[in-house]
């Protein structure tokens, strides 16, 4: 594995639109081979999964200037994801470590065990200006590994104690474990939570998102968070062409989102970037071979579906959302925390590795 070539200025960018190749000469590696501990656990939920525990040298990543993302900074405590979504755009990042972007991405999980302490140190720095931090933008910070490593409580506590605005995007139900911490953080700063639910079709879910909680369980998370005072939107992503985009499917999904009490619904059509494209197309050829040529035509110009298709889906979802009484997410600027605001007293956090 190529740990020494994963660099701070390139290979560990945590944004969807990022993607340095980790090979910039002269950059310091994010972690060296002497800092990696590899473990396996003989339990049903982790059978076949290998964890690479690393002590990272940085945790707050800057999003490239050319990114389409509405935020500038991200935190990603994991690389690789047991959710095993066949379309996941982050698959390519495993190639920077000479790991397979297919099954390897699903089963070789990098765990940045010192993420909470690194974040607390960064937030305490005089150079840090309190910018919004987005989490879950690369791989899910509430994937199954989080149940064992418990990195997010320390991360949220650090953000709370510094009244630093943040947002979380997840498919995981484990976020409910941290509801009290989220409530505490929301009392002192802006906290945004979105749950990803692209469809409620159970047959489609079982084949394209085999390691995730079911869509209806995720919508239960939305309901619980909202009832707990944490407004929660739904990122309706991905809308999968020819498999999840029929008007009846869109209606069923938006109706279920509305019933969950979501504050917003924002559609996002499937995109197929290098690494994800090859894995998804192989899956498509195995499960839906009659759609391969249609996909090749639809994505002939690159990673994104044509604008006309994206606009059609967006219009349909927004019309349905208006019908059911919810609207698209409003993209606002992160709030700045006044300099006079004192951080809360932090309680010590025990990092659990085993």
State the share of residues found in helices, binned by percent. Answer: 25-40%
* Radius of gyration computed on alpha carbons: 20 Å
Number of strands: 11
The major pleated sheet works out as: 7 strands, mixed
Helix and strand run = EEEEEHEHEHHEHEHHEHEHHH
Q: What average pLDDT do the residues reach?
A: 85
Strand order of the largest sheet: 3-4-7-8-9-10-11
Secondary structure layout:
Elements: E1 36-40, E2 50-54, E3 60-62, E4 73-75, E5 78-79, H1 103-107, E6 108-112, H2 115-124, E7 133-135, H3 145-149, H4 152-161, E8 166-170, H5 179-186, E9 191-196, H6 202-208, H7 215-227, E10 232-239, H8 247-259, E11 265-269, H9 276-287, H10 292-298, H11 307-324
Folded structure, characterized:
The structure is a single chain. The protein has helices at 103-107, 115-124, 145-149, 152-161, 179-186, 202-208, 215-227, 247-259, 276-287, 292-298, 307-324, and strands at residues 36-40, 50-54, 60-62, 73-75, 78-79, 108-112, 133-135, 166-170, 191-196, 232-239, 265-269. Residues 5-30 and 330-354 have low confidence and may be disordered. Helix 2 (115-124) packs parallel to helix 4 (152-161), helix 4 runs parallel beside helix 5 (179-186) and helix 8 crosses helix 11. With 354 residues, the chain is an alpha/beta fold. The chain is globular, with a radius of gyration of 20 Å. It contains eleven helices and eleven strands. Strand 8 (166-170), helix 5 and strand 9 form a beta-alpha-beta unit. The strands form two sheets. A seven-stranded mixed beta sheet has the order 3-4-7-8-9-10-11. The chain has a four-stranded mixed beta sheet with strand order 1-2-6-5. The longest helix is centred in the last third of the chain and has 18 residues, at 307-324.
């Amino acid at each position: 594995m190529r740990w020494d070539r994963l660099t701070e200025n390139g290979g560990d960018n945590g944004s969807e639109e990022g993607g340095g190749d980790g090979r910039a000469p002269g950059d310091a590696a994010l972690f060296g081979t002497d800092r990696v501990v590899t473990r396996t656990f003989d339990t049903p939920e982790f059978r076949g999964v290998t964890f690479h525990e690393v002590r990272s040298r940085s945790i707050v990543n800057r999003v490239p200037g050319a990114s389409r993302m509405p935020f500038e900074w991200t935190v990603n405590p994991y690389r690789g994801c047991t959710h095993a979504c066949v379309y996941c755009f982050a698959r390519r990042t495993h190639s920077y470590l000479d790991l397979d972007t297919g099954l390897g991405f699903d089963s070789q999980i990098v765990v940045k065990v010192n993420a909470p302490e690194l974040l607390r140190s960064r937030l305490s720095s005089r150079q840090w200006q309190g910018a919004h931090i987005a989490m879950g933008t690369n791989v899910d910070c509430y994937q199954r590994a989080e149940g064992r490593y418990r990195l997010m409580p320390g991360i949220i506590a650090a953000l709370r104690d510094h009244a630093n605005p943040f947002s979380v995007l997840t498919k995981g139900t484990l976020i409910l474990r941290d509801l009290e911490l989220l409530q505490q953080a929301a009392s002192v700063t802006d906290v945004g939570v979105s749950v990803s639910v692209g469809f409620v079709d159970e047959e489609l879910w079982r084949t394209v998102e085999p390691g995730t909680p079911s869509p209806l369980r995720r919508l239960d998370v939305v309901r619980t968070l909202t009832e707990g005072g944490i407004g929660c939107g739904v990122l309706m992503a991905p809308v999968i062409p020819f498999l999840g985009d029929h008007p009846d499917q869109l209606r069923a999904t938006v109706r279920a989102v509305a019933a969950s009490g979501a504050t917003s619904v924002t559609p996002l059509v499937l995109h197929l970037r290098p690494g994800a494209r090859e894995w998804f197309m192989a899956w498509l050829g195995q499960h839906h071979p009659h759609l391969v040529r249609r996909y090749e035509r639809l994505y002939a110009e690159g990673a994104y579906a044509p604008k006309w298709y994206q606009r059609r889906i967006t219009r349909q979802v927004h019309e349905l959302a208006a019908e059911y009484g919810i609207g698209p997410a409003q993209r606002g600027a992160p709030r700045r925390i006044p300099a006079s605001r004192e951080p809360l007293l932090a309680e010590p956090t025990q990092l659990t590795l085993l």
